[in-house]
Amino acid sequence: MKLELGYIQITDIQFSKESKVENGTLFVDADAVKAFMYEDDDVKEWVKSFSFDIAKPGESVRITPVKDVIEPRVKVEGPGGQFPGVIAKVDTVGSGKTHVLRGMAVVTAGKIVGFQEGIIDMTGPGADYTPFSKLFNFVVVAEPKEGYEDHKHEYEHAVRIAGLRAATFIGELGRNVQPDSSESFETLGIKEGIEKYPDLPRVAYVHMLQSQGLLHDTYVYGVDAKRTLTTILYPTETMDGAILSGNCVSACDKNTTYHHQNNPVVAELFAQHGKTLNYVCNIITNENVYLADKQRSSDWSAKLCRLLDLDGAIISQEGFGNPDTDLIMNTKKIELQGVKTTIITDEYAGQDGKSQSLADADPLADAVVTGGNANQVIILPKLDKVIGMLDYVDTIAGGHAGSLRPDGSIEAEIQVITGATNEMGFNTLSAR
Amino acid sequence: MVKEIERAGIPVVHMCTVTPISMTVGANRIVPTIAIPHPLGNPALSPEDEKILRRKLVSKALLALTTEVEDQTIFEN
Amino acid sequence: MSYRVVHYINQFFANIGGEEMAHVAPELREGFVGPGMALNQAWKGEAEVVATIVCGDSYFAEHEKDAKAQILEWVKAQKPDLFIAGPAFNAGRYGYACANICAAVQDELGVPVLTGMYQENPGADLKNKVLIVSTANSAAGMRKAAPAMAKLAMKLMKGEPLGASCEDGYMNNGIRVNFFEKERGAKRAVNMLIKKLNDQPFETEYPMPSFDHVAPNKAIKDLSKATIAVCTSGGIVPKGNPDHIESSSASHYGEYCIAGVETLTSDAYETAHGGYDPVYANQNPNRVLPVDVLREFEKEGIIGKLHDYFYTTVGNGTAVASAKGFAMEYAQKLLEAGVHAVIMTST
After folding, report:
1. What pLDDT is recorded for position C317?
2. I want to staple B26 with a disulfide (CB 3.0 to 4.6 A). Which of A151, C189, C203, C213 is the partner?
3. Size of interface B-C (CB pairs under 8 A)
């Protein structure tokens, strides 16, 4: 399967009467985006209103509470469309050609559950910890209808769909734009791969998907990952929007839809494909709340690694706490199949860094990459403008009573920052 | 946390869903529960049946507290 | 004015002699001796070795108490800003002496300390207690070790926060410190895997810990006379979370009276936990903290009494050390209250 990504570099976003991409500038008609979002019945039913804003790198702007970050894209050749099974029909994606509006994102914000959303600072110390401070962000702030408190599952669904629809609308504007550059990615069939690279070690990416319930779900072709069995994907399917985020675990280590679209493990494995290793495929496996599910899913990861005759696997986690057990179970069982592993996680070592970093451990997990200690305390200075609201800063995961200080600054753990300790290895942050 | 209570000299039973973590952190008496968001309940059941389920689970915990153990023990069905 | 440093070295580096002179008793000399020169050079006048203490390695090992007492007295009199020992490279008794005298100076005098040695030196056993710069395994590594130690020493004297162990060159002391790597995590993971696949040495960024275990206590003989307490890490709190227990990384626990409470209703209780779907626990908090059933068992005489208080915190992202502290504290309260057994529930 072969996918070509054509990158259209976005260097500015402006509101406009007409929506278009011209010379790297995205012009958006917010009313048209709103109308497109409201075409969905669920959005109509649960979302009272939308407001829109633009946040640019370096501006004194804080976006919170952030739900998801999405990169706008459009399928220009080949089967399927964006977000198959959710927005587009369920056709298999990952081949043909997709245009990407690079350097920008759609950010959804607004209150949902309060403590499970994050902060994006566009400048200052907080900006160093989130990759989204470097993007031009088109921010959609959603306001729920009255009585949503008893229907949070439904409201989350509506906001998720709204964000994806906004990204789809904007992505569509890139359909007839000539990309500034392009790249191709190809995965061969099992036998072809062995014949082409007989001497290279066979490596897969075991991609763990958060799937623990309300706002803790990931969707694969529209299927809630908690109702899936461990299975195999072409890496280009992930790159082409097959997996998206419906979850808000702690902001620092949730994989947003943007992370899935730009999965760094996929990118780095493709970079080595055919050189030092043969990148065979992705194995997706969930992180459920029932022990039997954890056992079954990790058994299946190990089984597939063996069936594929792998030599090595990279395992990435999402979230923390009991998912540490899924991570350790996967690692242990895969290692016991004779497949060498490297795992990516993050740490909760306490504000003083002295505590046990993970909830579970095993000596077979001897090759660990860390995204850093999420408990590290940071002071985020007051910024000139807030997109969204500061109402949830004290109760957000990583905040505490008094996090929002009288002078408008915030004292909290980096846990509150969207993407800060990403466990796909998106960032350079680490710890020793 | 379980370990600190045990260390203080009080027998303790850990009721949790993710028993492997309980094993790793060193609980001695472990009773597996239903699911992380509702360890001692199951929203899919009727309130009456759910209560019966909870009585069963807590009974098992009490059984664990009255059973001598030498090593870490999971009290399965 | 420059910082004052006292330096500790052994008989060999003081040019007294090798193994045959290892019995010499401690001696105080003014200014630098031997490797202290390299430290002084690196500090360029910002700090200076004002005194050097020389002690035979065998003497320290065989007369540790006396040697420590004497050395502590000398160090105290010098009023140094820092005490530095070694580097000891792979010399076992020298490393042991460096680490232990540093620990004593740090504990007794409250003076910042630093030493250096090879990672397999027995003295490195104290790396979680004393800051130790990792050096080569022989004195040939002095040219690298001295500047590395001097640099870290200057940070300590200036009171600057330490960087991560791999940045500042000290042995991992169990305290996790964040820093920005040159390459992103995914690339580091791929590189690490390639090394592992090719049987080349690689270094994990997080060595797996080992957990200690506590022996189980005796079982309850007669439940019908026992007071049972119920505790949770599932964050069940009175509605409104009056003590503001954090949804993640809790800094404290809650103690709440349930005397006379028959069941935990959704009007009166909820969960503060930010790590799981709160809907089910909020609908019926007994699903996490089974007060309803325990109250029934109490009435039926199956258990003697349900303890009047429950203890609760949020396990989500809460540091193990904090959780341990909470439990240690309330375990004492439970003991004093005469509780016979505890049911702990987790989500």
Report:
1. 65
2. C213
3. 164
- pLDDT at residue C123, as a whole number: 92
Nearest CA in chain B to A323: B18
ipTM of the complex: 0.97
Structural domains for chain C: 3-168 (3.40.50.2300), 223-345 (no CATH)
Helices assigned H by DSSP within chain C: 36-43, 57-62, 64-78, 92-109, 142-158, 165-168, 185-197, 279-283, 291-299, 320-336
The answer to whether C116 and C133 have CB atoms below 8 angstroms apart is yes
Least CA distance to B34: which residue of chain A? A290
In the predicted model, what is the mean pLDDT of chain A? 94
Distance from CA of A96 to the nearest CA of C (A): 26
Total domains in chain B come to 1
Q: How many alpha carbons fall within 13 Å on the CB side of residue A7?
A: 11
- Partners of A107 in beta bridges: A69, A139
Q: Where are the domains of chain A?
A: 2-416
A contacts of B42 (beta carbons < 8 Å): none
Residue C344's CB is within 10 A of a number of other CB atoms, namely 25
Q: Which residues pair with A9 in a beta bridge?
A: A102
This prediction has a pTM of 0.84
Least confident of A351-355, A379-383, C70-74: A351-355
Domain interval for residue B57: 2-74
pLDDT computed for residue C4 by the predictor: 97
DSSP C119: T
Average pLDDT, chain C: 92
Please list every residue in chain A whose beta carbon sits closer than 8 Å to the beta carbon of residue C183. 428
Cα dihedral A220→C234→A372→A343 (10° resolution)? -50
Give A177 to chain C, closest Cα distance, Å. Answer: 31
